[in-house]
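User: Okay, second chain of the day. Same drill as before: sequence in, structure tokens out.
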Amino acid sequence: MANESDIVKKSEAFLNDIGMTATEWLLTMGKYKSHILQLDDTSYKKFAELYEKIINKDFKQSDKGKLLEDLSTLVLYQGYAGIFECRRNLRTSSNEIDLQLCWTENARLAGIDRAFPFLEDSFLCECKNYKKSVDVTYVGKFFSLLHAARCKIGIMIAWNGIAGRSKWSDASGLIRKIALRDNTYIIPIEKKDFKAIYEQKANIFSIIHDKYLALQNDIDYSAYVQHHELEENFKKS
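Assistant: Same drill. Structure tokens below.
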């Protein structure tokens, strides 16, 4: 196997040949769900074991919260050694976790943070272990937590999803209203997302990125604002 020095030289030569910076290359890898950003073999094996245990219900109901916590921390930062570090880990009496994650110094030096600017300097993750979808009350509480922590991005692990039958109702609607008014984005990660990671069809970066863009584009009305033919008359008056 080539040593690290040789790998770096070959990587630099490759990027020079295609005319991309490391940051641009990482962003492209995330956009197209590249296997480059998948969990490594050891982390994926552990992830698969946890996922299968939850799906097959091979656990005591009282242990589900811990399993979901382990699955979440693995896919968010333990499985990506050297990219994220946990700044704060709080546990509540209801077996929920709050994580504040930030980029490591190595990730910043490598420009990985610039490839995913929407994650900003740090972001919060909250894990909700409920039998039903998360309702508007807990979305509101999470927004309050984000505001207190001065974070503009929050990842809400909600195994059974977010409540809301239409775009502007219930918890789903509140997420959109918060994005519109406060420029704060709450990104739900659901069991279907974990399934996509399990099947290696996506990675956590591409999932968060896609959901962020979907939320941002849903509230961005600038594309529909066109100049009216009478505007110049008002400007002259």
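The first strand starts at residue 84 and ends at 91.

User: Thanks, on to the next one.
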